[in-house]
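Sharing a chain and its predicted structure for anyone who wants a worked example. Both blocks are below, sequence first, tokens second.
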Amino acid sequence: MKLDHIQSALRERRFDAWLFYDHHHRDPIAYRVLGLRSDLMVTRRWFYLVPAEGEPQKLVHRIEAGHLDSLPGGKRTYSSWQELQQNLQEIVKPYPALAMQYSPQNAIPYVGLVDAGTVELVRSFGVNVLSSGDLVSQFEAVLTDAQITSHYAARDAVDRITAEAFQVIGQRARNGGTHEFEMAQWISEAFRRENLISQDSPIVAVNSHSGDPHFEPRADNSKRMKEGDFVLLDIWAKTKDRDACYYDITWTGFIGKNPSDHHREVFAIVRDARKLGCEAVQKAFSAKRRVAGWEIDKAVRDFINSKGYGDKFIHRTGHNISSAIHGNGANIDNLETKDEREILPNTCFSIEPGIYLPEFGVRSEVNVLTSPGKAEVTGRQQEELVLI
């Protein structure tokens, strides 16, 4: 645990303290931020308070009294619930603005890990429990130089694989055919060849299946791919380096030379919405203006609404990307939640608007990487439907 970094972040964000709490491994964030072993046998509640200034405080059960010994600070122990509450009150009382893994109305379920009863208990001591959302982003989503390097390495490989996958689809479609699951397997094999790993299999979706944002190609549900089909590829992977950062993209194409006017129209709307979202982030960072995830989603969603397809854009505009494909930083979301977390420098996230119709769906996904005063799209950007 980097105590000085945590305390500096607390002062910067005007929190008096950050209270970590766990019971039976309910809060994996606490273990990662504090550097605790994830295999501890935790059968009793523990608390760890990090103040913005001064010495941290531990509160542990007597039969698991050594659980927080790897962390700095004073230690109190309890056995009875009365002892727990008395000690906890004395620990938190001096800190009126207290951060916890709490999210008002569970707006950010990635952060809302402390149960309502514990929040009620802490508030009963006269302190204000606030969301640790931006703190979690700072310690979970801000990328190191090595992680950024790994993201670019994954980009180079995934962009190659995606281009090659379209070529293979075209060749196979004209020489006996292939189906969605076979191509998903081909992409997974290409990952192994490029020393990449991935959580879950890629999405290869044809026609109506591309209108299902999380279609999962399997042997028992796959459609054969043929001339005249609309194709969506959603591909994500990372290198095998420790804590490597994912690269995650979605492209669409048409098997043949003449996609319909409807295909072209919907693609153009989604492409322009994607570009608008990226530009909104870039303008905010160039102007050094604080921007939250919900603001970018709103701009993208308003554009698609203006084109008459608002009810067909059924998911958030983007998600944080880190060593997890869905990381713990700000999501680009004003639909599923109003994500008020700040988009921090040195974080990565997707911009991926989509329009999903019964006969086909279009999603166009890129990754954006921020730095102080700058935001950039890290990979290739699709401008036209791929003619396969």
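Comments welcome. The chain has a mean pLDDT of 97.
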